[in-house]
Amino acid sequence: MKLAVLGGSFNPIHIGHLALADDVCSSLGYDKVLFVPTGTPVHKEMNGAIPADKRLAMVRAACRGDRRFVAEACEIKRGGLSYTWDTVIFLQEKYRSTLTGKIGLIIGEDLLSEFHLWNHAPDLAQLCTLILARRPSLSKKSEAVLAHENRPIGEYGKIDASRTFSISDEPLFANAVCIENPFLAISSTDIRARIASGKSWRYLVPPAVFRYIVNGGLYGCTIER
Q: Residue 216: which residues within 8 A CB-CB, separation 6 or more?
């Protein structure tokens, strides 16, 4: 079984995440994509985060309609800071009897310039097949979106976000695979901002996730049930 991993806060999970996972399966032949909600992220302070169990519940709801997608709770169950290296080692052991080849590690374009700061980054580049995904740059952000953005912390906060990053600048990506995934200008930050502002957002998330957010009144949602 060819296995790929897509980690993130999924705050909330949206159709862009699912479209990316679908492309990894369709274009690269992976059998399963594991969605791994982070427990406590190392690189950012989450803005407007809801409890981890609710983020996990949304991921499970989103994955329920596609047998290729699996919600993996290992980082939340492990507790403490969430390191991708620990997750990959855990998953290698968990799936050792069925795993074929290297685990595919999906990394969004917005994270490429900071990958060298990840725990065991050179080892990850050797142990996994790095799958680099496109992500639209939302350069013009409203005040509402800016108010809901996450804040990078530590060394991650020192990265110059305005600098143009090229994959060729990072030797760790020498053997990475780039995919032409659907270019959807959707972000969890924008969704949280739209919910809080009373703007439309229903079709930016899977139907089951929409119902979960509405029923739980998450992110300040006031839509009548």
A: 54
* pLDDT of 203 over the 60 cut: yes
Q: Which residues contact 168 (CB under 8 A, 6 or more apart)?
A: none
Burial zone of 62 (CB within 10 Å; 0-12 exposed, 13-18 middle, 19+ buried): buried
Rounded to an integer, the average pLDDT of 32-39 is 96
Cα angle 173, 178, 179 (rounded to 5 degrees) comes to: 160
Confidence band for 48, pLDDT divided at 50, 70 and 90: low
In a 10 Å sphere around its CB, with 0-12 CB exposed, 13-18 middle and 19+ buried, how is residue 133 labelled? buried
Cis peptide before 37 (omega within 30 of 0): no
Q: What is the mean pLDDT of residues 33-54?
A: 82
